[in-house]
Design brief:
Blueprint (H helix, E strand, L loop, with lengths): L3 E6 L6 H14 L6 E6 L5 H8 L4 E5 L16 H6 L4 E4 L2 H6 L4 H13 L3 E6 L3 H5 L3 H16 L8 E4 L13 H18 L1 H6 L2 E4 L4 H8 L6 E4 L6 H10 L1
Parallel strand pairs: 1-2, 1-8, 2-3, 3-4, 4-5, 5-6, 6-7, 7-8
Helix pairs in contact: 1-2, 1-11, 5-7, 7-8, 10-11
The structure holds 1,3-dihydroxyacetonephosphate.
1,3-dihydroxyacetonephosphate binds next to strand 8.
Length: about 250
């Protein structure tokens, strides 16, 4: 059995008071289930708050990015080591918003992935195609190119300590979820590529789906054979929605 996850990505949202209410509701509502993990990836200034609020709960936490550098004159960056100091378990790397808005190239993402591993964080590597790429039949080529950059840099063994997330860009924040079949096709493709390199690692790799997951569509998505949970944006900010998604896992 592969490990299954529901991970929230708060993006650039939150505030001390609102976070406290949400974290309270989650620490009461997320009931432990074996083989399943729950987490929240928060803006880095809130890591201390989240650590204090969740330390006795079953929920893990982490950051939404890490610096491509370890330390030094890189104003504004937050290193993987700093994120780890707050008891974090996870770090997102290669989210499509980082790639598209902040210019993270495949090499940069691979570097961040390596630094997250070195800090003993579990990188959650995000891959996904844009709408024009899907419409021109390039989905598999794009997601494999994004994954391959990490495999080339860190070996397939790097994936044995990571989580993969398929997030089609056209489904993020749009309310337009990939159908369970569309998502499953890409998940099965990605797993097949990893299995071809190392069968055991491919079989064990948890692949999460992200893009407009809500409590109303989570069960159907999570029921697909190669979908091992979800990476949740907007719905992770609403306790009732996020708990509904957790309960669907
Ligand atoms: P939404 O759930 O808001 O579509 O965002 C998905 C996402 O980008 C999670 O990383």
């Amino acid at each position: 059995m592969r490990d299954r996850f529901v991970i929230g990505n708060w993006k650039l949202n939150g505030g001390l008071a609102a976070n406290a209410l949400l974290l309270d509701a989650l620490s009461v509502g997320v009931v432990e289930k074996s083989g399943r993990s729950c987490g929240v990836c928060v803006p880095s200034p809130y890591l201390a708050q989240v650590q204090a609020a969740l330390k006795d709960s079953f929920i893990g936490w982490g950051s939404q990015d890490v610096s491509r550098f370890e330390s030094g004159a890189y104003t504004g960056d937050v290193s993987a080591g700093m994120v780890a100091e707050f008891g974090s378990r996870y770090a997102l790397v290669g989210h499509s918003e980082r790639r598209a808005i902040f210019g993270d190239t495949e090499d940069v993402v691979a570097g961040k992935f390596g630094l997250a591993l070195r800090a003993v964080l579990t990188p959650i590597l995000c891959v996904g195609e844009s709408l024009p790429e899907r419409e021109s039949g390039k989905t598999e080529e794009v997601v494999w190119r994004q994954l391959q950059a990490v495999v080339v840099a860190h070996g397939v063994s790097g994936l044995s300590r990571a989580i993969l997330a398929y997030e089609p860009v056209w489904a993020i924040g749009t309310g337009k979820t990939a159908s369970p079949g569309q998502a499953e096709d890409v998940h099965a493709f990605l797993r097949g590529k990893v299995r071809a390199l190392d069968k055991a690692i491919g079989d064990q790799l948890s692949i999460l789906y992200g893009g407009s997951v809500k409590k109303s569509n989570a069960a159907e998505l999570f029921g697909m054979p190669d979908i091992d949970g979800g990476l949740i944006g907007g719905a992770s900010l609403v306790a009732e929605e996020f708990l509904g998604i957790w309960n669907a896992l």
